[in-house]
Amino acid sequence: MVVTKQEHALIFLQARTSAAFADLQVVLLRDLAARLKAHGASAGCAVRVDAAADQLEAATRETWRALQSGPPPRC
């Protein structure tokens, strides 16, 4: 299967959009964890939400690092 230049650019744009959405999810998870703590939720619950945010943030950081160099060469 041959990928056109437009398809290649679209795939790269989709990857950037996904990474941006993941950044938003991290912010929302951090906010949720803070709200859980403020409203007296169990510490374990808030810690699990924070841990999920940490994992997503690490994965997102790696994605942004990979995307920084621009789109990979076409196959």
Based on CA inertia axes, which overall geometry fits? Answer: rod-shaped
Helix content: over 70%
What pattern of helices and strands is seen along the backbone? HH
Could you give a short account of the major beta sheet?
Answer: none
Termini separation comes to: 10 Å
- Summed up, the helix count is 2
Number of strands: 0
Q: Specify the structural class.
A: mainly alpha
Percentage beta strand: under 5%
Overview of the molecule:
The protein is mainly α and 75 residues long. The protein is built from 2 helices and no strands. α1 runs antiparallel to α2. The chain is rod-shaped.
Topology:
Blueprint: H1 5-38, H2 43-67
Top keywords for this entry?
mainly alpha; 2 helices
